[in-house]
TrEMBL record:
<dbReference type="InterPro" id="IPR000682">
    <property type="entry name" value="PCMT"/>
</dbReference>
<protein>
    <recommendedName>
        <fullName>Protein-L-isoaspartate O-methyltransferase</fullName>
    </recommendedName>
</protein>
<dbReference type="InterPro" id="IPR029063">
    <property type="entry name" value="SAM-dependent_MTases_sf"/>
</dbReference>
<comment type="similarity">
    <text>Belongs to the methyltransferase superfamily. L-isoaspartyl/D-aspartyl protein methyltransferase family.</text>
</comment>
<dbReference type="Pfam" id="PF01135">
    <property type="entry name" value="PCMT"/>
</dbReference>
Amino acid sequence: MTDLDLAEAKANMVEQQLRTWEVLNERILDTLERVPREHYAPAKYSNLAYADMQIPLGHGQVMLEPKVEGRLLQALDPQPTEKTLEIGTGAGYLTHCLAQLSAHVTSVELFPDLREQAEHNLQRAGVDNIHLHTGDAARGWSDGRHYDVIAVTASLPEMHPGFHQSLSMGGRLFLIVGQPPIMEAVLITRVGEDQWATESLFDTSAPALVGAPVSQPFDF
């Protein structure tokens, strides 16, 4: 795909996917236009980097659709002074976007090869306000810090509070909750020491966070 083709695909992404899905925050749109998504998609999918689809990354993981990433970023609205936690680094594309919007990003990836590839992608892009970890965050991530923004990029089959306590006061958490075919994206805001407000955002579907807890049915 030529540079001209990529520019056209990116423009179509913004006008036909993001804006029609009510991603209207110009700061978010500028970030999504500026970060080269094709540099993060696996080589065999680079021509589809701006398509309205999930892009496979291996291990059952995906790059989410651009419109979902746009709504995620718009809902969280990371600010230049805020600290962000990302669960599921993947290829590093959303990590890059979050790093453009916030002061610092801590990102956790379960699979070492995906983390290494993301690190390569982000270093090539010159992104340095990040810290990548390899680890299991299926039940939450407790590193002794509180975060203003938490983005969980895979779904939870069932809501659990593992990430809630890692929010700072006023902090925002994005989750996709439920099981196929339809799941619910929600925004959770910490409004008190033991109080959180939940807002329903949209219906979508995404691969489950590996190892996320699921209640076992009773045997009769």
